[in-house]
């Protein structure tokens, strides 16, 4: 198998390009290394893979030339043995993906910080429906494009989770175990956080609370609403719920409807900072004073919540912590661990000027 | 090469799992198909690749079983011949990536809508510096992870562009040709749009204009500021520039500084909707009335710009159109076309309540 010269002095420089002497004017291939080392392609392959059948001197020469040429075996060639080394993420804009777009990179950064160190890349696709996500899972899995799939914005009966279970594809669901159907799951403790929100509002004397949410199919939304409703019911209050597309325009419309109704709520809770900001403006235009006539609370904090007038009371949005936990879960699944579930605490409610005690001036 | 039975009636069902009869309890491999068809792996390979040496009856049986088993040749096996079929995108949060996070998915959706139809996936990494992006390019290129790299938020002297040129890696730069250094480029026509903004402001009688931008290294920022400055200078006015991290907090701080200076500007132009919203609040707190004391203009429109009080005058942010053009450019590069540059128009300025004629009440 060894066709090169017996010594280790021959180094053939292959067609040096004008600006980078010593490197061919295209991607360096195993054939370039073989030619430069004066050996066959098979010998290069043996040498770099540490397999027997090559002398130590030849191995050393091949490795030195490969180093000089900055050549590495291609991922495609290696993945024949080690798999694609990619983590999949298919974001469905129809499942609340768009509402969380501003925080998307925070989450992705934290997730990949964990598995990126192990040589895994993130394969991303944005699709318009849950069905399109399922179709992507099937194609990618058949083509061995990913090792683990991450599912975000999980629905309570999610066809994506069912599809991944049917495919027997390794997966991590960003959501509660109840929605993960036995797959590994990581979720923020929304039930606990919204229980605290309810206690805080009840303590201020509020009983008529409204919540303006994104799509009702999101499991997370259901958990939040259930936690609020349960506590308010126990305190003799009631929860009114309005659903929107999670965008600021529909949030503004819902707010207008609530505030012009015969019995307007004294508190409105919004899923996101953008929805709450839009609501703050609606209240201002209607002459409804926050927090005297109305308390407003955002379920995910941001710089704009701190900067608005009044500043918005908000729950933290610990996406870094969530992303790190998801990354750890991805690694565990890659290592063949069986399904687990992990809970990330939401953290303390930041109380600011948009919430206050029930003191409606219009009431007698 | 043919070891199976002569007929085509034998179908061996391999270890049916409890819930999906007929499918093995793991990813279906070529070995499963070979066993079920009663032929060798080589025969399956010949049959599915349409190569000679297999009878028509055998080919038909193998294809039917592969279909039943939902088996497809792996991407890894195919990529040995056809390449990785992935488009790379490394977003550097230090290069303005975070400021555009809310619109990131819009851009990505439009880009992949074009090349996704051709079977290409998007390989995404978020990094904290331009140097880390360069390191990722080198590793991914050596490992043949991508076919074309997309560079966003390009700097005027961008080490990422230089690195891709040195690697001779196919690339599309989202930015002006001046920053793309001979690589294929696609950019929004910021020079034209900001020229129109300057004309509009000059027509309203403004001469003292300030601009609050993100990082000054962004080539796009430089183009915008240059277009404003040139027109204002010609009209006998002046442009004051403040740079920030593109977040709402630093935008608010810059606004406070500008409005409390001895000669405050009559107009402030902001890079993003979030920055302009924060500024609107600062003006409100300082008792500076918009648009009577101060005009505010946002360089990227959003629903919140339409919903704020007053609504914000803004330039469109045509990310869908930009993304489609980037996707088309990626396809052209994949097809081996030499470098081109493409300009996407920004579109008409939406004039709303936050801008008006110079009518400062504090002026004599």
From TrEMBL, chains A, B:
**Highest taxon in the source lineage:** Bacteria
Q: Which InterPro entries match?
A: HTH_LacI, LacI/GalR-like_sensor, Lambda_DNA-bd_dom_sf, Peripla_BP_I
UniProt keywords, alphabetically: DNA-binding, Transcription, Transcription regulation
Q: Please give the Gene Ontology molecular function terms for this protein.
A: DNA-binding transcription factor activity; transcription cis-regulatory region binding
What are the residue boundaries of the HTH lacI-type domain, all occurrences included? 28-82
Q: Which PANTHER family match?
A: ALANINE RACEMASE (PTHR30146:SF155), LACI-RELATED TRANSCRIPTIONAL REPRESSOR (PTHR30146)
* Record's protein name: LacI family transcriptional regulator
- Native organism: Kribbella antibiotica
């Amino acid at each position: 198998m060894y066709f090169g010269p017996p010594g280790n002095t021959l180094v053939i420089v292959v067609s040096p390009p004008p600006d980078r002497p010593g490197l061919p004017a295209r991607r360096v291939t195993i054939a370039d290394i073989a030619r430069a080392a004066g050996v066959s392609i098979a010998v290069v392959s043996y040498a770099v893979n540490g397999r027997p059948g090559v002398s130590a001197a030849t191995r050393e020469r091949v490795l030195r030339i490969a180093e000089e040429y900055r050549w590495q075996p291609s991922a495609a060639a290696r993945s024949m043995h080690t798999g694609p080394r990619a983590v999949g993420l298919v974001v469905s804009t129809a499942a609340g993906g768009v509402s969380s777009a501003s925080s998307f990179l925070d989450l992705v950064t934290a997730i990949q910080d964990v598995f990126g160190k192990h040589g895994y890349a993130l394969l991303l696709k944005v699709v318009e429906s849950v069905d399109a996500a399922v179709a992507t899972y099937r194609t990618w899995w058949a083509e061995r494009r990913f090792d683990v799939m991450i599912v975000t914005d999980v629905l309570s009966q999610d066809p994506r989770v069912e599809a991944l279970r049917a495919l027997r594809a390794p997966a991590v669901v960003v959501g509660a175990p109840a929605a993960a159907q036995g797959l590994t799951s990581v979720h923020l403790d929304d039930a606990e956080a919204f229980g605290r929100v309810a206690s805080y509002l009840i303590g201020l004397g509020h009983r008529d609370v409204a919540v303006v949410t994104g799509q009702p199919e999101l499991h997370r939304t259901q958990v939040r609403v259930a936690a609020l409703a349960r506590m308010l019911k126990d305190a003799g209050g009631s929860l009114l719920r309005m659903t929107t597309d999670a965008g600021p325009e529909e949030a503004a419309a819902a707010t207008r409807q609530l505030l012009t109704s015969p019995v307007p709520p004294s508190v409105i809770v919004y899923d996101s900072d953008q929805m709450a900001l839009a609501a703050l403006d609606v209240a201002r235009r209607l002459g409804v004073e926050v927090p005297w006539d109305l308390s407003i609370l955002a379920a995910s904090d941001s710089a704009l919540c701190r900067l608005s007038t009044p500043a918005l009371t908000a729950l933290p949005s610990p996406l870094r912590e969530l992303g790190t936990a998801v990354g750890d879960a991805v690694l565990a699944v890659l290592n063949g661990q069986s399904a687990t579930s992990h809970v990330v605490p939401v953290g303390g409610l930041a109380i600011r000027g948009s919430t206050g005690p029930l003191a409606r001036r219009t009431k007698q």
